[in-house]
Amino acid sequence: MVVTVVVNGTRVTETIPTRLSVTDFLRHRLGLTGTHVGCEQGVCGMCTVVLDGEAVKSCLMYAAQLDGHEVETVESLGDGDALSPLQQAFKSEHGLQCGFCTPAFLMTATALARGGEPLTREEIREELAGVLCRCTGYEFIVNAVERHLGARPGAADD
Ligand code: FES
Ligand code: FES
Question: Whose C-alpha lies nearest to ligand 2, atom 4?
Fold first, then answer.
């Protein structure tokens, strides 16, 4: 079947097998390898991308479902070596170690920031709970998202 989708602001039309997942479509068809694969069962959240403004687990969707929709991946953030404010917040707060989970957290936080609602630290934790990091213990990741959302005390000073 043929699918037409806007990916990171660019319209793409591809002929695909009906059972191709969104994750494989992004990684193998479009070469957007920032979206990582973990469990492929909807558990780990590594594959999180933004679909029409909402964070979704791309391993649970078929690429066929993207037809007429808009997808954003981690490659949409930053500009070459220049980090986006969200990426900068992760860097400043040391919100990553191996970085395998980082694209998923960045895209989850991208969707959160678009919501524009003030969130408590506990609410941020709940929103991030769908992505499993094996390295950092979450504190620094939550700090980074909190900083980006403007809620982290003192973040503006350093
Ligand atoms: S790869 Fe684990 S939730 Fe998608
Ligand atoms: S930084 Fe390594 S899995 Fe999260």
Answer: 133
